[in-house]
Amino acid sequence: MAENDLLSRDDWPAGQVLVQAATYNERENIAALIDAVLAAGPDLQLLIVDDDSPDGTGRFALDVAEREPRLHVLVRRGRRGLGSAILEGFMTARAHGFEVSVNMDADFSHDPADIPRLLAALDPAGGRPADIAIGSRRVAGGRTIGWPLSRHVASRLVCWFTRWVLWVPALDSSGGFRAVRLSTLDRIDREKFAQGYAFQEDFLWRVHRAGGRIVEVPITFTDRTRGSSKADFAETRRSIGELLHLARITWLGI
Ligand SMILES: Nc1nc2c(ncn2[C@@H]2O[C@H](COP(=O)(O)OP(=O)(O)OP(=O)(O)O)[C@@H](O)[C@H]2O)c(=O)[nH]1
Ligand SMILES: [Mg+2]
Questions:
Q1: Closest C-alpha residue for ligand 1 atom 25
Q2: Nearest ligand atom owner, CA of 28
Q3: Under 8 Å between Cβ of 49 and 26
Q4: What is the CA(249)–ligand 2 centre distance, in A?
Q5: What is the position in ligand 1's atom list of the atom closest to the CA of 196?
Q6: 229 lines ligand 1 (CB under 6 A)
Q7: pTM score, whole prediction
Q8: Where do the domains of the chain lie, and which CATH numbers do they carry?
Q9: Mutate to test the pocket of ligand 1, among 33, 60, 107 (most ligand atoms within 8 A of CB)
Q10: What was the pLDDT predicted at 220?
Q11: Structure confidence at residue 195 (pLDDT)
């Protein structure tokens, strides 16, 4: 947290699982998202990491947090980037003693009702615990609704690259719906993460190289119906550069 940032109340209830959603101009989704996440489990708490959205998303969430003890809001000033927002959410979760973070987009592409299934996959009864459970469109039973062909192609290319060039054992490496065991962060270098959208692949790459275990749980991903995308050309170009950087380290060690 930086000096000019705004944070909702600091007296958080004790908890194990913190759901976090990074937001930028999600005013049309934020009210329903808060309700749906808090309804997904009585013990869940929610952190919104907003980058001072011009449409007032952060201000609105701060107001709701005044009367909802399970909602926390960090409004960052002077910083942007999905990856850096997620990383800051991880640090905030740890600082408040949480063991697991569930990351999701705020545009209802990820269904809050799937959160319990992701958590169950992290600690399956009688099975091997995992470090990350991905809400996956690419395992049996998973699917994507509402995307144009161009999005399918771009997403497949990125997932193929991550699987076969970066050697990350995951079929859906670009999605942002994940349960993450926070102790995993101790094993990886947090300074060097990609700051934008490539954070998603970058994070899996680092966790895998540190010996972390990744599992995938089928989800239905639905393209957003409200608000607009932030994944513009500049962001896409930056992400490609960051993925190529990881490929160089994977193959050349530099
Ligand atoms: N805090 C923060 N959140 C961001 C930033 N960029 C995007 N987000 C949020 O990250 C999530 C994913 O962004 P989206 O715009 O939905 O990206 P996408 O899913 O690839 O694109 P569409 O769903 O097609 O619009 C959403 O909750 C956004 O509000 C950012 O710079 N800072
Ligand atoms: Mg989206």
A1: 229
A2: 1
A3: no
A4: 29
A5: 31
A6: yes
A7: 0.96
A8: 6-252 (3.90.550.10)
A9: 107
A10: 98
A11: 85
